[in-house]
Amino acid sequence: MEKAADSFMETRYYPLFVSLDERLCLVVGGGSVGERKIRTLLRFGAKVLLVSTECTPWLKAQHEGGNIHLLGDVYDKNLLHGVDLVFAATSDKALNERIANDAHSLRVWCNMATDPEKGSFIVPSVFEQGPLTIAISTGGLSPAVARQIREKLEDQFGREWAIMLSFMGLLRKAIQSKGLKSDQNQLIFREMARLPLIGWIQNNQRDQAFQAIYDICGSWIGWDELTQLWNEAWNPYSSSSLPSLTASEPSDI
């Protein structure tokens, strides 16, 4: 397979979603940039180590609460041993570059705040809607444009997508538990994918959506079980204009 060529980029970034649960992440720099990195890392379950001469009030509170571990105020290459990711987030470009070089020599993934192209990974602009995550990158060329694209996507992918995906995930597990053959599973979900569920959810056409789903899955999942799955997906968004389903009996069995 040929390597992708690009006339305006020296670095090609491989799109990748990773789990940081219980992963050790070192952040060097306790200012606003470091705080922003750490807020995101904690949200995704990472174990955070911090090196900084000064810390924001929020970072101090996180350290005092035991949510992050402050290693001290001086960076040393030895701190990289055993670390999964390192974030060079200081205002000192020379220090950030030294961290990136050290990380490269030890084959540790490094994100560099001041010169992203000198690190080994960049953090994309991210939009989340329930289980849906869309990451946008311009390859480091223009974070402002990436942000603009993300804002456009926010208008296109509303809560109905979160409801639909949550339901499809629950339904997939339920169908797989029935012990059907692989080709039967594939047929069910191909038929489900053809349904205009997003439009039905947007327009509160609950009965029409539910009846169509039951017509496809009713041979394996009963009406009550399907109703429970539907409401489980819908209820987290019940405060919106999309109320949970109160299902009527099927019109045609």
How do you describe this structure in short?
By secondary structure, this protein is of the alpha/beta class. It contains nine helices and seven strands.
Provide mean pLDDT, rounded.
88
- How much β-strand is present in the residues? 5-15%
User: Major sheet, described briefly?
Assistant: 5 strands, parallel
Uncertain residue segments: 1-8, 241-253
* Percentage of residues assigned to helices: 40-55%
Coarse structural class:
alpha/beta
Distance between the termini: 52 Å
EC number: 1.3.1.76
Organism: Desulforhabdus amnigena
Catalytic activity: precorrin-2 + NAD(+) = sirohydrochlorin + NADH + 2 H(+)
InterPro entries: Met8-like, NAD(P)-bd_dom_sf, SirC_C, Sirohaem_synthase_central, Sirohaem_synthase_N
